[in-house]
Amino acid sequence: MSNHEDYQRAEIVVDLSVVRRNVEQLCEAVAAHSDGPAVMVVVKADGYGHGLFGSARAARAGGATWLGVAHRDEALDLREDGDTGRILAWLAMPGEDFGPLIEGDVDVAAYSTAQLAEIIAAAKALGRPARVHLKVDTGLSRGGVPMSGWADLVTAARTGEVDGHVVVAGIWSHLACADEPDHPANDEQEEAFEEALAVAAEAGLEPEVRHLANSAAALLRPSAWYDLVRVGIAAYGLTPAPGVVSSEGLGLVPAMTVRARAALTKDLAIGDSVSYGHTFTADRPMRVALVPLGYGDGIPRHASSTAKIQSRGKSGAVLGRVCMDQFVAEVPRGTLAGDEIVLFGPGENGEPTAQHWAEWCGTISYEIVTRIGGNAGRAERRWTDDDGSLV
Predict the structure, then answer these.
(1) CA distances, 242 to each of 215, 338, 364, 371 (Å)
(2) For the chain, where do the domains classified as CATH 2.40.37.10 start and end?
(3) Is the dihedral of CA 186, 189, 190, 191 positive or negative?
(4) Each residue of 75-128: pLDDT tens digit?
(5) Which has the closest alpha carbon to 30: 175, 239, 230, 176?
(6) pLDDT value at position 34?
(7) Would you say 298 and 371 are in contact if contact means Cβ atoms under 8 Å apart?
(8) Which of 44, 226, 236, 295 is catalytic?
């Protein structure tokens, strides 16, 4: 990543060429097997905090034939941005208008017969069929119809197909424990999915794609691939299974860097305490910097006295409690106000990564990048690309 000195307070930098290369790597990994599946890159939640539009362009450039989003507006925004490829939007509320999605040639998910009826009603009103992915709950107990109601959903979907109101483009589910490849739930869910596919076939459905695998399963469990794999966090360079393999071990590079300028520096003496509650007290003389980011910007409060930063090439601890707008961190002697503090990045220069922050905060890297990259934060956001085609 090229050096950039123009930001004033703090910035989040996303290298879209890295996202593109990660997607290329993932596409090559699944294509290496015979009959390798198609790849969907999930760009929900503003591309996991990396930016919806840039992430989508990078994913397409890297070979993704599908994009996945949670909310309808994300899909419609992608269409407005000029994306014409296949998109699946999967989380709708009762009474939501499916018309714009159908009109925009966006695939939609049906979690129940009631939701399917709403999709069919919108398709009838438009006079064109809806492309639907029927979701079965194979054991996550989250979205999707339970197996007890699956036969009713596929029967209704087949009727909708015969009547010309829907095209069953997909049948899908989601794994609960893919980040633990040997967990027995994986086998149980695959068996349940096979059962669901058999019921659908018996009803006369022939979906274009069957999909079950998320990032972890796409990388670690080929038996769950079927026709399409859904890649989320891995596209952004972070391992979906940190207990099994690192990003580096997967050949992936984190795309996001978060850095700030020291608002103030000062020296602490032995016995000086830091931040609310005085939860940290210096046991030696030290130099500290005030970093102008806090939980109002997506910095986890759980980073208090646990996370680390990098300044002048050296590691330093977050000291005391993270506040709404700022936190204090140890920095090398000689550090001055205005000097750069790196919270996390690719890790190529010894700086922490989002995975490190996740471990320090007792969470997952998904949350770290999505929260800090969210639009509510006050850091400047910038996107880079090695040839400028994606920005």
Answers:
(1) 12, 34, 9, 19
(2) 256-384
(3) positive
(4) 999 999 999 999 999 999 999 999 999 999 999 999 999 999 999 999 999 999
(5) 230
(6) 60
(7) yes
(8) 44
pLDDT tens digits along 172-214: 999 999 999 999 999 999 999 999 999 999 999 999 999 999 9
Residue ranges of alpha helices (H) inside the chain are 16-31, 44-48, 52-61, 72-80, 99-103, 113-126, 147-162, 184-202, 215-220, 354-361, 365-372
What is the CATH architecture assignment of 256-384? Answer: Beta Barrel (2.40)
DSSP bridge pairs for 132: 108, 168
Task: Please list the residues that pair with 108 across neighbouring strands.
Answer: 89, 132
In angstroms, the CA 11 to CA 158 distance is 51
Edge-first strand listing for the sheet containing 308-311: 264-268, 286-291, 327-331, 314-319, 308-311, 340-344, 256-261, 10-15, 380-384
- As a whole number of angstroms, the distance between CA 154 and CA 139 comes to 18
* 215 Cβ neighbours under 8 A, 6+ residues apart: 178, 230, 231, 232, 233, 234, 235, 240
Structure token pair of residue 364: 């997952």
Buried b (16+ CB within 10 A) or exposed e, 194-231: eebbebbeebebebbbbbbbbbbbbbbbeebbbbbbbb
Residue 111 a catalytic site member: no
Q: What is the pLDDT of residues 245-274, one digit of tens each?
A: 999 999 999 999 999 999 999 999 999 999
Catalytic residue among 111, 276, 308, 314: 276
Kindly state which CATH superfamily the domain 65-234 is placed in. Alanine racemase (3.20.20.10)
Q: What is the dihedral of CA 86, 91, 92, 93, to 10 degrees?
A: 180
Q: Based on the residue annotation, tell me whether 124 is a catalytic residue of this protein.
A: no
Q: Tell me the mean pLDDT in the region 38-67.
A: 97
pLDDT for 1: 40
β-partners of residue 144 are none
Which pLDDT tens digit goes with each residue over 360-382?
999 999 999 999 987 667 899 99
Within the chain, all domains assigned CATH 3.20.20.10 are found at 65-234
